[in-house]
Design brief:
Shape: elongated
Number of strands: 0
Order of helices and strands: HHH
Largest sheet: none
Strand content: under 5%
Number of helices: 3
Helix content: over 70%
Distance between the termini: 53 Å
Amino acid sequence: MSQSNNDIIKTLEGMDQEAKDYKKRLLELCWWMRGGISYTEMLELAVSDVAVLSDIIKSNLETTKKTGVNFI
């Protein structure tokens, strides 16, 4: 199977955007962790672990909104 140059460029651009989006997600999680984990440590986590961490933060935010208790 061969791809045209345009298809290859589009694929690479899509991969580049996914990498940028993932880096942003990791940096946002580092911010929420308030120094509890460094960016370097975050990069070493499995993608599934990053997803679990995101879910925990989201759940805590929802609980905070419902209860009015400070999250920070």
